[in-house]
């Protein structure tokens, strides 16, 4: 989700549009603010590429255009208060619960719903409906859109011999319509190489500027060619 750790909001034609600026820092899992040169430019470039790419598959995205090297323009959406984590491989939590090895591909993607950013943020579909976080109809549509997003992004990386382990999506509404609003940064898109473990940093362990730089450069380079 859009949070203070990843972006800041700037005023921009307040009636219809929102400009989002990506800074040159990120917040690590240890809650440390870590600066990385030109990180905002990389985040903006990666996001704008995938938004444009998904639009080609008729996926509704609130992204409108690039504003400058490190900021993008969106429709002025009202963001839903939860995010959807799509797992294509077993993460640490899943591996602890089920008899699978962490990192093993899953036969079918698993959708998790998260309310907030804490380690206890996992909620059910019933929570979302019962606490009026969205309607049942909206949730069905969100799930269909997420399935399509996952298929498109997985295919993109599979053609490049890479594996998408995890995608985190967030949605918002503009004039009553649902849009994808977030996010394809290194913080929410977890990709692993097939065969070369040293190709880039483990995306689940980005705790230093060098690790983030290496992984962000991979995503930026693959979306710039």
Describe this structure in words.
The chain is α+β, with helices and mostly antiparallel strands and 225 residues long. The chain has a domain at 80-206: 2-Layer Sandwich (D-amino Acid Aminotransferase, Chain A, domain 1). The chain has five helices and twelve strands. It has helices at residues 39-55, 92-97, 125-130, 136-158, 209-222; strands spanning 8-10, 17-21, 25-27, 33-35, 63-68, 71-75, 78-89, 105-114, 122-123, 162-174, 177-182, 189-193. The strands form three sheets. Strands 7, 8, 9, 10, 11 and 12 form a six-stranded antiparallel β-sheet that branches. The chain has a four-stranded antiparallel β-sheet with strand order 1-2-6-5, with helices on one face. Strands 3-4 form a two-stranded antiparallel ribbon. A hairpin with a 5-residue loop joins strand 3 and strand 4. Helix 1 packs parallel to helix 5 (209-222). The longest helix is centred in the middle third of the chain and has 23 residues, at 136-158. The radius of gyration is 17 Å and the shape is globular. Mean pLDDT is 90; it is low at 1-7.
């Amino acid at each position: 989700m859009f949070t203070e750790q990843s972006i800041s909001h700037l005023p921009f034609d307040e009636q219809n549009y929102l400009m989002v600026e990506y800074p040159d820092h990120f917040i690590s899992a240890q809650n440390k603010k870590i600066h990385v040169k030109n990180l905002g430019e990389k985040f903006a470039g990666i996001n704008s590429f995938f938004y444009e790419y998904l639009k080609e598959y008729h996926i509704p995205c609130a992204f409108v255009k690039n504003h400058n090297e490190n900021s993008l323009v969106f429709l002025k959406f009202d963001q839903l208060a939860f995010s959807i984590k799509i797992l294509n491989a077993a993460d640490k939590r899943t591996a602890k619960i089920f008899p699978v090895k962490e990192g093993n591909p899953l036969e079918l993607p698993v959708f998790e719903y998260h309310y907030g950013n804490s380690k206890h943020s996992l909620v059910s579909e019933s929570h979302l409906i019962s606490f009026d976080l969205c309607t049942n109809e909206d949730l069905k549509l969100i799930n269909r859109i997420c399935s399509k997003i996952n298929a498109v992004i997985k295919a993109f990386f599979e053609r490049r011999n890479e594996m998408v382990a995890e995608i985190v999506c967030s949605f918002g509404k503009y004039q009553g319509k649902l849009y994808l609003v977030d996010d394809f940064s290194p913080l929410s898109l977890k990709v692993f190489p097939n065969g070369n473990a040293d190709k880039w940093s483990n995306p689940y362990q980005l705790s230093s500027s060098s690790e983030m730089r290496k992984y962000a450069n991979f995503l930026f380079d693959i979306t710039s060619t």
